[in-house]
Amino acid sequence: MAKLDIRQIPVLSDNFIYLAREPDSGAVAVVDPAVTGPVLDEAKRLGWKITHILNTHHHPDHVGGNLEIQEATGCTIVGPAHDPDRIPGMTVQVSDGDTYDLGSARAQVFFVPGHTRGHIAYWFKDSDALFCGDTLFSIGCGRLFEGTPAQMWTSLQRLRELPTETRIYCAHEYTEANIRFAVTVEPDNTALRQREADVKALRAEGKPSVPSRLGDERAANPFLRADAPELAAAIGMQGRAPVDVFAEVRRRKDVF
Ligand code: ZN
Ligand code: FE
């Protein structure tokens, strides 16, 4: 099983598009193309031939380049079976528990509703790579546009179980803003304070804070910590159900 060669393309104000190449077959996937031009330019610069698009959900800043890239390359478009009508040009539908092979690199598909009702994530186990769109961010999670707190908490718990070294290739550079909120929830979380310092240094050098490491997210991301007694205590919700704690943290972030 070959490891993917993954490149990050920052576009729009804060989106990341990823190019992932499987070296044995030369297959190249674009993950969540918000736009077309920068993707085709970067692929050309690298000498990579785009064969696939992998979509996590239907929002325009994730599928905006689908049709033009498909027209330019003839690529296969893989997306959520749960959302057949909202993924432009989708040719392969995948759902929870499915695998999808990009050359010899195998992705496991997770259905992770909450941000949207059809959201999926792709886990390339042998590359320690999770493409999770707008479900899990570094020190944050997606807004609940079409789902309930219970759905999102269930989705995040599934992603949280992946191996510690998994890299979180999320779709936005939101980390600094997420940290500004997170320290209001858990001001005494040392892992969070360490991440705050690390991200500040990265951003000061103009470097992305993404991908992050799942082990670090478990320790510092308040949305993965709704069942941690110290987080519940920090917001005065000791002994409450984790889903209620999660809902309260998400509500506070919405009005932050
Ligand atoms: Zn979105
Ligand atoms: Fe987005």
Written account of the structure:
There is one protein chain. This protein has helices spanning 37-46, 60-63, 66-73, 149-160, 175-185, 190-204, 214-220, 229-234, 242-254, and strands spanning 5-11, 15-22, 27-31, 52-54, 76-80, 92-94, 99-102, 105-111, 120-124, 129-133, 136-137, 140-141, 167-170, 212-213. The model has no long low-confidence stretch (mean pLDDT 98). It is of the alpha/beta class and 256 residues long. It is globular and about 55 Å long. The longest helix is centred in the C-terminal third of the chain and has 15 residues, at 190-204. It has one domain (5-254): 4-Layer Sandwich (Metallo-beta-lactamase, Chain A). The chain is built from 9 helices and 14 strands. The strands form 3 sheets. The protein has a 6-stranded mixed sheet, covered by helices on one side. Zinc ion (ZN) is lined by residues 57, 59, 62, 115, 134.
